[in-house]
Design goal:
The protein is an alpha/beta fold and about 425 residues long.
């Protein structure tokens, strides 16, 4: 493998070509393992950025791709349709709330957020609500890297401050600071309510990640917050969008994070685990108020919308998940992470340890040199990808107890080694 070419010419996420980061060459993958070209096998603690819930090289998903490949790999969705999209659509309607009854298949998570924002905007336009021209969202949020998505990411920690002059300006309120199991107090909602009361006539929709704020800090917050937000949005005629791209398909212990609060958004974005990590696909679901309210043509249409290969493997992935005792599996991972990560709370570098579903987080007081940390973890046979001051785990659901212990033990041992900040 030509690693020199890679470093000289291929941009990796959030990296520089003038000062390239170290990249480990993967030759193959199977189960929870990434197989490097030097023969080293790494247990993946990240599910390849949270999407490979069934691990790698799964025979059921492989077969779904092969079967569809022998029929048609891609066909435009404009004026044509196909069985994989129809069957996937039926499955998504079956596993989500009955009010979410219209689906737009998009390319990626970022594009799903763009589509959701355009849906909400066009709905307001068609209803004659022309004074509505802003979105409201939380600080510490992350929704993607395209321009619409960037505009509702945290302006300071959302990694996009260099583009701030080019972005539409929206309304930000403090991120929820009521812990997942914390007793509810109306003070947690005070700023949100004040901003909604003040600005509801110009707010198109509220958009945020339910229950878990991912890249913005891996924050877990109270389901009661969702209940109160839903009620306030209804009261002030503001649409509600949930970004479930990272939280969907069982990661938080519920199939979808909104189920923790038993509330349903007007529009919901899905991605990442939708295809089990096999290829890029996202879905935007909405209720009939939105689809009927738009009425005329919805103005969006990606070239690879509803790609048959992606739809086929997404359907296979969902069926594979639902045919397993996935909730018991996620509860097992949650229990093990809770016990095995807790010891790190004693480390003077650590600010907090928290676990929800198949998500484990160690928040440090300040960032370490993650290049050094990652090298040490690779030497121990583990792949993680820390960021900011956060060490987090989102393992594939197929991970076995001893494999997860290998990850947590390696992480704890490495944290106790001398690593520069």
């Amino acid at each position: 493998m030509d690693k020199e070419f890679d470093q000289a010419h291929l941009w990796h996420p959030y990296t520089s070509l003038t000062n390239p980061t170290k990249n480990y060459p993967v030759e193959s993958a199977d189960g929870v393992y990434l197989n490097l070209t030097d023969g080293k096998r790494l247990i993946d603690g990240m599910s390849s950025w949270w999407c490979c819930i069934h691990g790698y090289n799964h025979p059921v998903l492989n077969q779904a791709v092969v079967d569809q490949l022998n029929k048609v790999s891609h066909v435009m969705f404009g004026g044509l349709t196909h069985e994989p999209a129809i069957n996937l659509g039926k499955e998504l309607l079956a596993i989500t709330d009955e009010s979410l009854n219209a689906i737009f298949f998009a390319d990626s998570g970022s594009v799903a957020v763009e589509v959701a924002m355009k849906m909400a905007s066009q709905y307001c336009f068609e209803q004659g609500l022309h004074e509505k021209n802003q979105f409201m969202t939380f600080s510490k949020g992350y929704h993607g890297d395209t321009f619409g998505a960037m505009s509702v990411c945290d302006p300071d920690t959302g990694m996009h401050h260099k583009f701030s002059k080019l972005l539409n300006q929206h309304i930000f309120v403090d991120a929820p600071h009521c812990g997942f199991d914390q007793a509810w107090d109306e003070k947690y909602l005070l700023e949100f309510e004040q901003q909604l009361v003040k600005n509801h006539k110009k707010i198109i929709a509220v958009i945020f990640e339910p229950i878990v704020q991912g890249t913005g800090g891996m924050n877990f917050y109270s389901p009661h917050y969702l209940k109160r937000v839903r009620a306030l949005c209804d009261q002030y005629n503001v649409l509600l969008i949930f970004d479930e791209i990272a939280t969907g398909f069982g990661r938080t212990g519920k199939l979808f994070a909104y189920e923790h609060a038993d509330v349903v958004p007007d529009i919901m974005c899905l991605g990442k685990s939708l295809t089990g990590g096999y290829m890029t696909l996202s879905a935007v679901m909405c209720n009939s108020m939105i689809s009927d309210g738009i009425g005329t043509n919805f103005m969006h249409g990606p070239t690879f919308m509803a790609n048959p290969l992606a739809c086929a493997v997404a359907l296979a992935s969902i069926k594979l998940l639902l045919s397993s005792d996935w909730q018991k599996t996620v509860n097992r991972i949650e229990s093990q992470l809770t016990v095995e990560l807790e010891i790190n709370r004693q480390n003077p570098l650590v600010k907090d340890v928290r676990v929800l579903g198949a998500i484990g987080v160690i928040e440090l007081l300040e960032p370490l040199d993650w290049t050094v940390f990652q090298d040490k973890m690779v030497e121990k046979g583990v792949w993680v990808r820390p960021f900011m001051n956060l060490l987090y785990l989102m393992p594939p659901f197929i991970i076995e107890a001893e494999q997860l212990t290998h990850i947590t033990s390696a992480l704890t041992a490495t944290l106790n080694e001398e690593i520069p900040c």
